[in-house]
Amino acid sequence: TLYKLYAYVVGFRSAVGSSGGEAVRSGEQALGGQSPGAEEQHAPQQHPPAEWINSVTTQPACWPHIGGSNIMKWDDMDTNAWFSMRTLSLSAPVSVGVDLCEELNRVASLVREEGNRRQPSRPRNRTLPYARAEGPFVTRRERLYPTTEQKEALRKVAGVYRWTFNRAIAYLRQHPHSNLTQVRQATVKSTSIDEQDKEWVFKIPYAIRAQAAEEAHTANRNSQRAQAEGRIDHFTLHFRKRRSGFGGFKLEKRQWKDGTLHIPELLDGPIRVRTPIRSIEHDGATVRQQNGKWEVLWSVTAGEEDLPAPAGLGPRVCAIDPGVRTFATLFDPLVGIAIKVGEGANARIFRLGLHLDNLLSRMAASNAKQRYRMRKAANRLRKRIKDLTTDLHKKLASFLRANYDTVFIPTFNAHEMSRRGKRRIGRRTIRQMMSLAHGRFRSWLGWKMKTVEIKEDWTSKTCSTCGRVNYRLGGSDTHRCPSCGTHSDRDVNAAKNIFIHSLFDLRRSLTTTGNGLNTAVVHL
């Protein structure tokens, strides 16, 4: 019995690795608490698709070799960021006489052909008379610097706006098919409000309160339309609650004059802004408070630089392997390099998360004044964590748009991998993975450029040189092939496999519509 317990503990440590485990892909890692050997004994061993494995064996000779990437020196890139970016020069392809540029141009043509084959979805027509015109829009944001008196006035406006919005939600719950005029008459008109008890309501301009009623009506109308189209099963209109340091309201275009906000009934003068905003287009603007800081957001017509760059325009291609210990690993076959972005970034974010946990645990044993201050400190910590991840996402997305024409990226369904009862990684790794917000990064990258998304099953365990599967990879950061003996960096090996997998899926999707394997999706 003691021997079995010892074997169990040793097997578990070898499975999760020295760092406590790594975020792994669905179907790649041994079950949590078991060694790979135990999994092979108690569960039928899974195998990757044979057709894709056969394609791997014919591809590696055409692309840069990654052998020895686990021990080679990585060079730091000059980046003005809190996270690291390191690059590694890979060995030349084994095949002699292969024109990488010509081969990658063929890959780009496959991407364009696949994109042309998939028709983009037809945009929804706007039929309401007060709806804005169709067209690509982008949102701009500018910081506001109000005085102490102006801050108090903005908080009053936000409070009345929230009260009117909740009043409209309560009315729409009882009369869900009311039009906008009926909602305004029931919630904004002076005849519907007791003037003796609600004198503070009429100090706020009618136009701002009408915007609150319109926002509630729009939310109800959009939800009803989504339910009718079958996109959602049901919906519930929720009230907005009061939160210290948060809130906001919407404005009409006419309330923005001379590059700043004007509310003569409340503000003693214009609010200072760092960069004057010449005009507000389309649907007006939104003034909101985030962690005590005020800012204004407005929509403008998107320019050419704001639209996503199309995929497949040239030979500059890269494949991305997302992870936890390293946020993203890039494989660039044209230049012959691998790039690691955000290596160790999870540790810094996780440390801030521990500070947040400690703060929340001490909050329960504090008095009201201390809890108020701790709550504000917790909000600042949450914003700090989100700002770090957002900075990582935006700078990496800008780097990819500036240097590549086509990006192959896996889906990396973090929520599916973290589901209780099905996950194969520990709580610590799950928290680090969720804090990095890979889904938000894919969304942001989609706004910068068109991407090709694939599934990444077996890309870490499969050797990118010979196609042999290493079932005992576990959480090791080095991939050791049991067949050809190639030793390589785990993430670089996975990034190259994602590139090879993308080529296989593109060729297959253009020749057949079978349902046995993964299919690349060009997002247009």
From TrEMBL:
Annotated ranges, domain Cas12f1-like TNB: 438-498
Domain of life: Eukaryota
Annotated keywords: DNA-binding, Metal-binding, Zinc
Residue ranges occupied by any Transposase putative helix-turn-helix domain in the UniProt entry: 143-173
DNA-binding recorded as keyword: yes
InterPro entries the UniProt entry points to: Cas12f1-like_TNB (IPR010095), Recombinase/Transposase-rel (IPR051491), Transposase_put_HTH (IPR021027)
Region (Disordered): 18-47
Gene Ontology molecular-function annotations: DNA binding; metal ion binding
Keyword Zinc found: yes
The name this protein goes by in its record: Transposase
Originating species: Tilletia indica
